[in-house]
Design goal:
It is a single chain. By secondary structure, the protein is an all-alpha fold. 85% of the residues lie in helices and 0% in strands. The chain contains 14 helices and no strands. The longest helix is centred in the middle third of the chain and has 32 residues, at 122-153.
């Protein structure tokens, strides 16, 4: 089970590295493609919409297929999409490649979570989910900063080649180590429809929409904000992203321990209140590197601790329709990201 958990975490590392990389090199992309910063940010926004639509629809369409095959298909499509983006200098082609990457990611992440959820006992589920989602957190510590550094040494095209290598490696690992025959409970369109009209279950999913919208109003333009407000170099911005991701990793792995010690509902309330204060602080904190580092550290810990707790709650509330809940939760994450990216672009 440890090897399976590691492989699933690696798949999410590929999703996080390839998906968040755009935010890390946004100014470079805007300059290279001769578009405005909000237009470059729209690459993330449109990708988020594609993910939001793809996660539940593809989850309902592909639920009968062996989970290993689903993961392999998603990871290899992510690889191809990154390669196409890396080879292009046209905004429209890059946009299409990012949308395809998002659709493929919409298959991968929910599948990793459904596999680990149904291979573990309820008592161990929260901790196992935090480990699998930890791959996404590590992409902030290692994947994203390394990609930004590669872009600084070369350009953003090289960074996308790097992202393609990560997802290809994850695909090879899945092919080698994930067993065949892993199936999940039914998640067809009827189950999906029943979940959608259950307002109690959807209210739990909607929490993540609001939370991620708040995150991405700031995060989409964090690189630009650090560059302009603090007058940081590209290398210094990379260090800030590494700092943020480091504390995010502490948060995501610590979340598993917290869920074993504290009531899930109370834990989420505390995390959301803390995040509301942290997000609002970017509008009033002085332009001081130490203060910004403190805020980024707190944001990393509380922000990444929230996700495993929220995912575990969705599975608990969903019951027998847990797989539909996982895909809708994943969709909600990217609906929130799209809202945040577009609102951030308007207010930028």
């Amino acid at each position: 089970m440890k090897l399976i958990t590691f492989t699933l975490a690696l798949a999410n590392f590929g999703v996080g590295t390839g998906g968040l990389l755009i935010a890390g090199v946004l100014p470079q992309i805007a300059a290279s493609l001769v578009v405005s910063l909000p237009q470059a940010g729209a690459l993330l926004g449109y990708s988020s919409i594609a993910y939001a639509l793809g996660a539940p629809l593809l989850g309902a369409a592909l639920w009968r297929i062996d989970r290993k095959l689903v993961l392999l298909g998603g990871l290899w499509l992510m690889t191809v999409a990154s390669v196409v983006g890396a080879c292009s200098t046209d905004y429209t082609v890059v946009l299409i490649s990012r949308v395809v990457f998002a659709v493929a990611s919409a298959v991968v992440t929910p599948t990793t979570l459904s596999v680990v959820a149904f291979l573990t006992t309820p008592e161990a589920r929260g901790k196992a989910i935090s480990k699998v989602f930890g791959g996404f957190a590590l992409s902030n510590v290692i994947g994203l900063p390394l990609g930004v550094m590669i872009a600084a040494l070369g350009d953003w095209h090289m960074a996308l080649w790097y992202a393609a290598g990560v997802s290809a490696t994850a695909a090879l690992m899945v092919g080698e180590y994930l067993p065949r025959g892993i199936r999940v409970p039914p998640s067809n369109f009827a189950v999906l429809g029943a979940f959608l009209i259950d307002w109690r279950k959807m209210a739990v999913v909607f929490i993540v929409v609001l939370q991620m919208a708040a995150v991405f109003v700031v995060y989409t333009y964090l690189t630009a904000w650090l560059t302009v407000t603090l007058a940081l170099s590209q290398q210094a911005v990379t260090g800030m992203l590494l700092w943020f991701g480091l504390f995010g990793t502490i948060g995501v792995f610590g979340s598993g321990e917290l869920m074993q010690r504290f009531n899930n509902h109370k834990l989420m309330v505390v995390l959301l209140i803390a995040l509301a204060l942290i997000h609002s602080s970017f509008s009033w904190i002085p332009a001081s590197v130490p203060l910004v580092m403190l805020v980024l550290a707190l944001w990393g810990v509380f922000g990444f601790a929230f996700q495993p707790a929220q995912q575990t709650r969705v599975i608990l509330v969903a019951g027998t329709s847990a797989n539909a809940g996982i895909t809708l939760h994943a969709s909600g994450v990217y609906v929130g990201q799209a809202l945040g990216a577009f609102v951030g672009g308007v207010t930028h």
